[in-house]
# Entry
Amino acid sequence: MLIQDVIAKSKLVLVEGDKKIGKLAFSLMNAEKGGILVISSYPRKLLEKRIASLENLDSPEINEALRHLDFLTLKEEWQRLKAKYGFDFITRDIEHAIETYRPKTIICHRFDTVFSNVDIEASTLFMERMINIKEANDFKLFFTVSTDEHNSNAIGIIEDYSDIHVSITKSPERTVEVKTSIFPIETERFRFVQNGGQKLRLIPIESEEEAEKTAQAQEKTERDTEVLLISENEELIKFHRYLFERRGFKLTVAHSMPEMLDGFLTSPDLIIFNLNSDQPDFDLCHTLKERNIKSKMIYIVQSPYVRYEDKMRTIESGCFEILPSTFNCAEYVLEIEKTLQKNFYTPTSNKITSHRVFQDKGYFCDIVDAYYNDKIFFSIIKFRSNIVPHDMRKMLRNQDLIYFDPVSRSYVIALINMRKNNTKVVLDKLAVEEGYTISEAFDWPKVRADICD
# Structure
């Protein structure tokens, strides 16, 4: 997904950066159309000065946002009140402001100062209260914080509830970097510039490695990376069809010896060989080596494990790697990327982070839709449990997506980069009872209605 689409879909955006780097401008340019409410820890006069500096940008989208902007500054004695009453006085003021202005977007400006010298539990309770207020009133929420080692706890707490976390730096030009995102995102670094028409823009930045690969690709004749899968295992075939159903790849599946030989003649870039046996057969590896076939091959055996001796012999025989049938999805794709020298999956997958439990089923399904559309692999488990959401979150990985229905006490969990045959450890850990269902990413269109409607 493009960053503009990710921010548009996200409900809570964390914007981090140095002082006067453009955090408020970034938030305003990405705010929902309609009323905008800025709630700032700054004194009123200082905030008015900051807003006046934004008017001087003469940016069309900023000027449009400012026309719909109201702001609320915390009481001058807010630090004393916070020490006496905790965050209750702030949330009451916010709820009153929401009733008054009915905003489409709220920007909590420099709330890292509000979180300073407050214990983690109190800050977490405040964020949970803000999430409840947001869901009850349906607005988009931004938090802007200053990059500072003293703010690390505050940033970490807000990030736990964020859908996307971006950092703005100046080195030497102003740059926006995506730290984490609940949605898959194509590019992670952008130049944050104002063009001749004064419009603020985010221009993607390629890393040196990406730029070199782009240049190499342009020098070559334009063609898809060809992958030959030799297998009779339907689940494995579905997995690879899903994985390579993306631009730049062409997957051919061979079920029989004639189909396999035909595939060899095309000299594919990668051969994935899955013999219906738990014992390795090194003949095909020898054939690749002896005939100097340039195709690289990954061997998947039916056994749940691979002995070290077999691994060494496979590589010596001419194959690139040998893996068990229970291979880890993320590690397997990384091996493919290393083999092809083409990072088509891992950079996007690694950015996905989810720290909270969702109770908005529609939003949960929107996120899973994004994973499916970007071909990020996952397994979906639907079950009932007496485990409370807070404890459930602790028992799973940060990238796993959790939906909880408090009425039926049922969960739907999207286990990112996990295949169905690797879920037993999760089921045991969660003590899942009878009646659960498991499906994999390639079946999402079939099971979506049952989960999302």
In short: The chain has three domains: 3-206, 222-346, 352-452. The longest strand covers residues 174-181.
